[in-house]
Amino acid sequence: MPKKPPELTYGVDDDPPFTTNLLLGLQHVFIISISLIFPVVVVRSIGGTPQQAEFMVSMSMLAAGIGTMLQALNRKGMGSGYLCPSVCGPSYLSASLMAANVGGLHVLFGMTSLAGLFEVLLSRVMHRLRVLFPPEVTGLVVAMVGITVIPVALPNLVGRDATDTITELPEIVVALVTLGTMVGISVWSKGKMRLYSVLVGMTFGYLASIALRILNISHLELFTESPLVAFPDLDYFGWSFDLALLMPFLIAVTCSTLKTVGDITTCQKINDVDWKRTDMKNVSKGILADGMSDVVGGLVGGLGQSTSSSNVGLSIGTGATSRKTAFAIGGLLVFLAFLPKLAMVFVIMPKPVMGATLIYAVSFMIIAGFQIIMSRMLDARRTFLVGIPLIMGLSVDALPELYENVPSLLQPIFSSSLSLAAVLVVLLNLIFRIGIAKRQRLVLKPGVDDADSIFNFMEKQGAAWGARKEVIYRAISALHELYEAVTGSNLAEGEIEVEVSFDEFNLDVEARYKGVPLDLPSTRPSEADLLRDDSSAIRLSGFMIKRYANSVKLDQKDGMCRIRLHFDH
Amino acid sequence: MKLDDKSSGDVKIVLPEGRLDASSSDELKVKIDGLISEGCRKIVVNFEGVEYISSSGHRVMLASLKQLRKTGGDLKLASLKPYVRETFEIAGFTQLFEIYDGEDEAVAEFGK
Question: Which of B21, B52, B55 should one mutate to test binding to chain A, selecting the residue with the greatest count of A CBs within 10 A?
Answer without folding.
Answer: B55
